[in-house]
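Example complex used in Figure S2.
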Amino acid sequence: MIRVGVVGASGYAGGELLRLLLSHPQVEVTQATSESSAGKYLYQLHPHLRGRTTLRFVGQAGLTPCDLLFLALPHGEAQARIAEYAALAPRLIDLSADFRLRDAAVYAAAYGEPHRAPEWLPRFVYGLPEINRAALIGADKASGVGCNATATILALWALIRAGMLPLDQPIIVDLKVGSSEAGRTPTESSHHPARSGVVRPFALTGHRHEAEVRQAFADCGALDVRMAITSVELVRGAAAAAHVTLPTGLAEKDIWAAYRSAFSAKPFVRIVHEKSGVFRHPEPRVVAGTNYADVGWEYDPETGRAVLLCAIDNLGKGAAGSAVQCMNLMCGFDETDGLTFGGFYP
Amino acid sequence: MNTAICPECGAKISIPADALQHELITCPDCGAELEIISLNPPELALAPQVEEDWGE
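Predicted assembly (402 residues):
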């Protein structure tokens, strides 16, 4: 049993993290911080945690040493105080974008400002277990993952790794995403009368997660990936559809073999490519509340045109679920501890 | 229990010991409807399906 704290626990990712950790067989949650809600019970911000814990939020000044600290702060805040957090716990997992990119210049280009602790970047392991499991085993610091980057990486992973997807083409990734991606702080665009029912394109070029995707495939060569995000009527969920051209004449069995090779040993990736029925392809609704990523494809052997698919819960596999999976690998627990529940339907 | 290969996706499928020739089974991986066209050796073929139009 390890003692765990969550810094910045008032946000949606922090709340999801607490939900997972409070059911984890190897974890005792000892502290959760929120500056604005210090003194309140956790359930007062996260109503689904009522009856699950008697913990109250504390301010960061009240943090005490523990075995592992999760940082679920807004982007830019963890890097400003990373040395203080490292002094409190031998293991850190940061859910923000602060330590995902290895190169400070790439970070500055993607996020529009210089990194404030670039010397810490190489100390963090990129925290997507499906592509970085070996490096995470026994690591003491892991980054979080971008939700849209996660959906994109997993959509592309099998065929790029199999050498079946020629990289001399722009890869256009259309993502439909839910409102929780925008975080807990209300804005004019998230106001219910303005947000409800939308199919709202909001980041059609230059999405900052493109740098994260390129980094994930850096050893394969330069990847011309272009993400286009559209807000849809979901609270949780990100659905990626990567439009690519494959060689013509591939057999379905060959594509299946590539996906099986990539994911058969990955406990939270499911291949969804059904011949019949309604749920032939991955859908975010099916993975809501879980750490699963469903992947699939559609392929036209005559033209080579293909669409590579992935659906995740942006707060699950795209944030807190992957972070808990990282903790399991870092601490020597079973990779699936605390994460094996399914979703709900209908 | 014998196994056969799904002609659609290549999955290894267990054939129940009491299966009959021409029996229909479903591939657990890709959901294809399959007909057992031979028991010895076990062999599967895609069964004809009613196409769905998804309302499009």
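The first strand of chain A starts at residue 2 and ends at 7. The mean pLDDT of chain A is 96.
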